[in-house]
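Re: How this chain folds, sequence and tokenised backbone to follow

Filed under: protein folding, tokenised backbone structure, sequence and structure records.

Contents: The amino acid chain and a row of whole-number tokens, matched residue for residue.

Body of memo: The sequence and its backbone structure tokens, given next.
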Amino acid sequence: MAKLLLVDDDEDLVSVIEKVLTDEKHVVDKVHTGSEARAYLEGVPYDLIVLDWSLPDATGLELCLEYRAAGGKTPIIFLTGHDQITDKMTGLDAGADDYLTKPFAVGELVARIRALLRRPVQVRNKTLSARDLNLDPITHVVKRGNIDVKLYPKEFSLLEHFLLHPNQVFSVDDLLDRVWKTDADASIETVRMTIMRLRQKIETDEKNPLIQTIRGVGYRLQP
């Protein structure tokens, strides 16, 4: 499973790609503008970025250049209608790792993503932290201080999601869509029970819990 960012203003295309990638067991964040992409790239570590060349408020080329200039190492695949060899050279020279011309078969995109994810990288996802809680997305080790915390897979995925989006409030439906997306049997009660079990394992301060309930809205992680 990899964490992917999908940046494209074609919402129909994004929906198709997202479904295929989640069926491949990847976790997908999707955005439709350059400003949204910048916000996600600043705060979330990704394994791979799928980036459209033409966006309403920026170009993928600008975003790629900015990201690489800031030290971003994550592989990037450009999606674009520009099919001239000079355009491909420009995109690759800007720091993209691959380039797919529209229209394309989604299966080819998935194959290219697999190929890039197989490449060795010096740094993949960094350890995620909040207070004295640390989660390593590579080794799947969770620690509270120096104490190992044993989590079931969905508890781990839920905690990872909260750590990737600190201070952001998610409704139960949001969490079902993002964490249980490929589990057709999941329900509102499933989410609530998983949050309850996770709290039992990671919380140490009842007055100031990490995972907070926002009444009538949902849940958030408070670092």
